[in-house]
Amino acid sequence: MLISLNWLKSGLETDHISDEELVKLIGARLVEVEDVIDQTHKYDKIYVVEVKYCEKIPDTHLTLCKINDNVAADNVERDENGYIQVMCGAPNVHEGMFAAWIAPGAIVPQTFGTDEPFKIGMRKMLKKYDSYGMLAGLDELDFGDDHSGIVELDPEIAKPGRTLSETFNNLNDKILDIENKSLTHRPDTFGILGFRREVAGILGQKHESEDWYLEPTQKFENSSDIKLDIEIDKELCPRYTAIVFDSKGDTEKKYLDYDTTILARSGMRSVNKIVDATNLTMLAFGQPLHAFDYDKFVKVGGSEKPKIIVRAAKKGEKLELLDGSTVELNSDDIVITSNDVPVALAGAMGGANTAIDEKTKRIILESATFSLYNLRKTQMAHGIFSEAITRFTKGQPAGQTKAVALRFADITSEYLEPLALFDSQEEEPEPIKVELNLSQINNLLGTEFLSSDVKTILENVEFEVEVDENDNISVVVPFWRTDIHIPEDIIEEVGRLSGYDNIKPVLPLHATSDPNPMLQLKTHIRDHLAACGANEVLTYSFVHGDLMKKVGQNLDNSYKIINSISPELQFIRQSIVPSLLDKAYGNLRAGHDKFALFEMNQVYPRANGVDEDGVPQNSYNLGFIFVDKDSKSNYYLAKKYLENLLSNLGVKYQIKEFDSADKSLNDYYEPKRSASIYSDGQKLGDLGEIKQKVLREFKLGQGIAAFELDLKAILSNISATTSKDFRVSQYPFVSRDVTLSVPLATEYGSLERQIRAIFESENYIYKLACTSIYRADGADTKNISFHLDFANPSKTLEKAEINAIMTKVESIK
To answer: Which of 186, 28, 14 is nearest to 503 (CA)?
Structure first.
């Protein structure tokens, strides 16, 4: 989203703060500013001029012109009248017109900021005519794409010698390139009004919306000649407002105007007065509008009683859009219909059958809000990424549709006459009210706000706030803040607007929480498998339905995301192994012939059920695959990884016949070369080779093996002795290396048990690892070396304690 900084600052007091500081504040307290496009010199040396003389050059398309710049430009030749000679090839140049002149030395705005900026100068044309600068067209000024002629300025505002920037309220601007995604929950900020309100709050200034926005009033009587009914599905369209207008003047633009310049700086192009008015209204207030040809609308519906019906599209319905393309609709799309005949793809694009053209006499203005979830699907399904649908997919507030429609009527009063207003909502709903106490705010934020501080912060952005003597705060939420529902939302507003960076950081006074056993288990597994040569990966928990179909999983056993960020990520996965198989192909293509991948993450199969609040229940799983394209015994290699891991964890396990009853999750295993893993009757997971038909789906070779384990089940079956390894200490660990010289007959296991017994007798936290076993030729002893890490869980070990325990270890025989 592009925002003109000049437009944003109008109505704010910003003399005390630089543009750089203001942008920094916006980034810290509202939204990420990806870039600041500096256009402060884009329109330098471009002047308003009057064309005083024109003479066609025979046998050419050129016209010799004399222009009056009121002696504003330097270093140009002038005639006895002070006029400047310019050659112009535009067919619409004529005496008496006011135009935009790019003086010698200026950069043509169309090329400003590019790798090859074009600086205009004096040119000799046809070998005998000096031409100073150029009279500019819409495209050269970077206000549009039209190259058919030069722009003409309205004589009422054109003053020769004045800069073009001054004429159109300071074109020397800075454009903020806003990162839209971080404003997904704030539809009100997708218009200058809402964005400016937030910036006012950040600057500590009180913002006041105008009465027309807060309490819209219809200034015209509905004509009895205009008939129109509205029928909506409120799940798909919470509110639909329409105004019928009669055209009373030319809607094409003759002169370059301010609207065209602000549209260009916002990344849009001028079309005509009506379209420009809808786009400017959208940019100003965040409410997209659409205009239908009223008479075409009535004709398409085939009834003398026209009716707007907003409904879900029927699968297979087709609609020709304004851009000439024809789309096949699906049941997730929303359509605007005339007596049930589709005339627009709601929120995305109008239909060709009701398009406005030069013959249009009456129009229907649509101001509505639609289901953001459906429109996100429409956006993805049909590849439509317009400014309008970008706003609709954020969930525009229903409370502003009437106000904005009436504002459009005021803006266009010179050439459109409002005839009748129709609104699907008869009364405005009661506003949301949130109750909280000052102590909740200060306790959560770690601040010392007074209730008066909170009141001022919130009232600056137009919340209604009442505070009683006990610091109880009652907040009435304005209709445009659709993201505010609970006390925590209000607390976040207070912290954000006042600046989280202004909150004094204080360490928490409560004791450090006990270690998380699951995190410790995952760390232990990660270290162990990595030491065994496996590679950890992290893949999306959201997957495409096709991935689950490839492995034979039933989509009905997965939760589907209503508002998925991409069609590729519509389901929450049931298990991890399919995601690892998806990554195996890329690694094989990269030349890795033998590797092991593992991932520890959450899965959400429907079989887990939901809790009392209806929240899906998760499992923590470890997924593992072993790939060796030249081996036929991958099952046994994967089994070796599994057994080594479980033994290291101290889990007593049994490998039993494959549990095919769990087919909804593990149908990708080959039953005859697979097994299920149990511990004391509790299932831990499955191990096996992947079916050939599944491998073909992933373009993989033969013999890939995998296992997947339930980490919660693993955790509950770790022996008490082993579980000591998962403890953590807030006190430093001591590291020592020791070598024991023992008789050849001494078993390694005997030494390890004795060392463990020493540390466990002291209740120390410890880890031990054998680093080498060495025997010299002919010797009757061998040297076994260990690396030890140990700590006391309740204090820092002193030197004497360290020496004492190492003496015990060194005395082992």
So the answer is: 28
One-letter identity of residue 240: Y
545 phi and psi angles, rounded to 5 deg? -60, -30
Q: Which residues contact 645 (CB under 8 A, 6 or more apart)?
A: 525, 528, 529
Pairwise CA distance, residues 261 & 151, whole Å: 12
Structure tokens at 240: 């639909």
More confident residue, 126 or 78: 78
- Rounded CA gap, 431 and 782, in Å? 83
**506: its two tokens:** 């204080």
Q: Give 729's contacts (C-beta < 8 A, 6+ positions apart).
A: 765, 791, 792, 793
Q: Please name the residues in contact with 698: beta carbons below 8 A apart, sequence gap of 6 or more.
A: 550, 581, 582, 584, 585
Residue 699 phi, psi dihedral angles, 5° rounding? 60, 40
Q: Around Cβ 335, how many Cβ atoms within 10 Å? A: 23
C-alpha dist (Å) from residue 374 to 370, 691, 799: 8, 38, 68
CA–CA distance, 711 with 788 (Å, rounded to integer): 27
As a whole number of angstroms, the distance between CA 128 and CA 347 comes to: 57
State how far the Cα of 707 lies from the Cα of 575, in Å rounded to an integer: 11
CA–CA dist 801, 809 (Å, integer): 13
The one-letter amino acid code at 461 reads V
- 707 touches 642 (CB < 8 A): yes
Question: What pLDDT digit, counting tens, does each position of 603-643 carry?
Answer: 998 888 888 888 889 999 999 999 998 888 899 999 999 99
Q: What is the pLDDT of residue 107?
A: 96
Q: Is the pTM of this model over 0.90?
A: no
* Average of per-residue pLDDT values in the chain: 92
The answer to whether 435 and 473 have CB atoms below 8 angstroms apart is yes
End-to-end CA distance of the chain: 75
CA–CA distance, 171 with 289 (Å, rounded to integer): 26
Q: Is the dihedral of CA 788, 794, 796, 801 positive or negative?
A: negative
Q: Is 11 exposed, middle or buried (0-12, 13-18, 19+ CB in 10 A)?
A: middle
Pairing of the two strands 229-232 and 173-178: unpaired
**Those residues with Cβ within 8 angstroms of residue 320's Cβ, 6 or more apart along the chain or in another chain:** 326, 351, 352, 353
CA distance 529 to 644: 9
Q: Tell me phi and psi for residue 604, to 5 degrees.
A: -135, 65
Q: What is the maximal distance between C-alpha atoms in the chain?
A: 118
C-alpha distances (whole Å) from 595 to each of 578, 579, 641, 704, 781 are 16, 16, 12, 10, 39
714-766 pLDDT per residue, tens: 998 886 545 555 555 678 889 999 999 999 989 888 898 899 899 989 888 88
C-alpha–C-alpha distance, residues 766 and 726, integer Å? 9
CA distance 766 to 768: 7
Give 395-414 pLDDT, tens digit per residue.
999 999 999 999 999 999 99
Task: With CA atoms as reference, report the closest residue to 202 among 17, 31, 33, 29.
Answer: 29
Length of the chain: 813
Of 53-57, 290-294, 579-583, 648-652, which gets the smallest average pLDDT?
Answer: 648-652
Please tell me the distance from the alpha carbon of residue 289 to that of residue 640, in angstroms, as a whole number: 65
Distance CA 785, CA 789 (A): 14
Q: Looking at this protein, which amino acid is placed at residue 382?
A: H
d(CA 286, CA 398): 12
C-alpha 766/C-alpha 205 separation (Å) is 59
Distance CA 100, CA 102 (A): 7
